[in-house]
Amino acid sequence: MYQVVEENILGARIITVDRRYWSETSGIEYIQQLAFKEDLEAIKVAIGGNYFSVCCFSAALKYIDMSLSLTFAFHSLRVKYQPSEDSMMIDLATIQSLELIQNLQNAKSKDCLFGLMNETLTPMGSRLLRSNILQPSTQPSLLTARYDALAELSENEDLFLQTRQALKSIPDIEKLLSCLIVIPTNPGIWNSEQDINNILMLKSFAQSIGPVFESLTGARSELLVQIRSNCRIEVVDSTLQLINEVINEDVTYQVTPLDLRNQRTYAVKAGVSGFLDVARQTFKEATEDVHQHVTEIHQKYEMQGETKFDNLRRYYLRFSETEFDGRSIPDVLINRFRRKGKIEDSHIEVILGSDKTIQELLENVRSEIPSLFRVCESIAMLDMITSFGQLVTSQDSYVRPEITDCIAIKSGRHPIRDKLPSQNFVPNDYYATQQSRFQVITGCNMSGKKISMRKSLAIVDELGRGTSTRDGLAIALSIAEALAESRALIWFATHFKELAQIMSERPGVEVYHLSVDMSDPNTMTMLYQLGQGCVQEQHYGLALARVVDLPPKVLTVAEKVSKILISQTAAKQMSSRGVCD
Predict the structure, then answer these.
(1) Using CA atoms, how far apart are residues 425 and 335, in angstroms rounded to an integer?
(2) pTM
(3) CATH classification code of 407-549
(4) Residue partners of 381: CB distance under 8 A and separation at least 6
(5) Which of 92, 114, 136, 180 could be 8's S-S partner, Cβ–Cβ 3.0 to 4.6 Å?
(6) Where are the domains of the chain?
């Protein structure tokens, strides 16, 4: 495993963990302590006989505990065992070369499969889409359910628009739930502030589930009905009730630093603690002093500034440049200094006074984590499906695939290349069954062999080109024959005409080529059209050399050498025929 990680993830920082932490017993104990109670029995059955998976789980949890100083609340982890048999495995090199997640020329460009398909409205949906691109499911029942849901959303405009609108107000609940289940070993004031922020965000999420549930009213497909059931108001009602018992109803999660600070200060209801009420009063008075001081500055210097706040500078004044036209800047605005930290101290006292109540609330909320995780997964799935719907409804070129034993694509196009406005993309047909499972594709450079194969399942690109022509042909031919016997679906691009001619006589093998127009000796026109049979063009390497304007002397010598080699080959063939006769 160490060697595989080093070879496939360049620059990865590998940290070793003591062998004793790779323990099946410890892994099972972690599962019993951390997994949702209702999932325990199913997990135990699933991991039966999977010794290494359980050991890896144990080592990962031990590393998180020891190196990151993080522990998890009991029965708060969503533990799932997902076998590789139900998904497609894609190696790192393929992910990069096919530009599944990132464009090869520009890492920030959206010209990749993920960028093309990502119309999600929530971070959870975006993560699920990325995961499904990197490890696509191969379960027909799961895919069919998604197709049905997508078809219904595409055909029902009201359902689609209402669902998209409801998803816009959903916060990153997946990240939030991860924060709620983590228990820091050395909590400080920052952790206490974040706990209040998390409670306020959880409240916002619970209140936003209702519109999602209502938007799916009338849905008929199995997947949408299941998502609607998981997003019932009753599922989050208990969580919302726990929060409302402690948190003021008019307090909501805010984005700006000042608003969020004020909401944290007045989050817990009054009367819970006398110390908390006194700290709030002190904070209120100190804040009023700030505004009073600002008013005095405005009146004294006859200037109007804007009171601002951020987490680094705290309170500060912002003036328009026009306020200083024809006048000097007052010294009080130049020599800035910070006085006593009365406001900050009172705010810390409020947070500490609220902390005990907030920790008790978190303990109660953690019992609702399993149901909240299911809601989160449903929201992510709904967002991903509606993202597909946005893509399908905005372009007319997408069709619903049928899951069968053969691959048949009519007028298929590369999705990234097809959306580029400057290119007139040429569609091609593809067909593969066990009777035509090995397809050899020939053609000159830049004729479209790689673009053609980027829709394929198993591809081999110019195997054997890194050595001599004779050895390369022998290697490519032997591997091609072995692959043909494996009965896998293969697309095989090559410049070896002999390979195409030999393999064409094997059962289950088809030969194709990418067409090129060479009628004009000074130009080469790539037609990008897939045709039956081996490539017919001769000396397309020399033709390409003329197009790129190589020196005439080089071209003349190359043509002479080519004719000599052809004559020698023809003579050998005649000699061989004479021996055979």
Answers:
(1) 65
(2) 0.71
(3) 3.40.50.300
(4) 125, 128, 223, 227
(5) 92
(6) 1-81, 272-347, 407-549, 552-581
